[in-house]
Design a protein that fits this description.
Layout (H helix, E strand, L loop, with lengths): L14 H6 L17 E9 L2 H10 L10 H6 L9 H16 L6 E9 L8 E13 L6 E11 L5 E12 L8
Antiparallel strand pairs: 1-3, 2-5, 3-4, 4-5
Length: about 180
Amino acid sequence: MSKNPNPTTSYKPSPTFREQAQLKPKGHYFEEFELGQTFLHHWGRTLSASENALFSTLTLSFNPLYFNAEYARQDGREAVVVNPMLVFNTVFGLSVEDLSELGGAFLGVDDLSYHADVLVGDTLTARSTVLSKRPSDKHADLAIVSWHTEGFNQRGERVIDFVRTNLVARQPRKEAA
């Protein structure tokens, strides 16, 4: 990395950096969703002991399964269990970029089920399938979409699933010239 010869001026990235940077669209408009369409959400997320302890402390979830390894083992678990609400928030968060990042109010979650413990160090991935879609009765620029979202651990075992519903933006109408 080259040094700035004049420390009184602010840093300016090289032209090649700006040329290589690309703005990638996130989220989808209502019209882009098709019934039965499946999204495999990228990245995945490994949950650490510190994240689990901090989340459990901040949400006042003082269940010893979430922070006491000996207690968890005596309860028949392999290791400390990740707080289920952290599991839900993580899987939900993995889906946002594909499904609802263009904006619109979150309308709720239904049929939330936990299928297996998530342990500290597990990596979660997610996929979502479009269940229903319809225009909003009250807002011409919005629509309502529901997805079935599933979360899996690194062994491909389903650990959580739920149905979530959001208001979703409709594609902007083109002005007549």
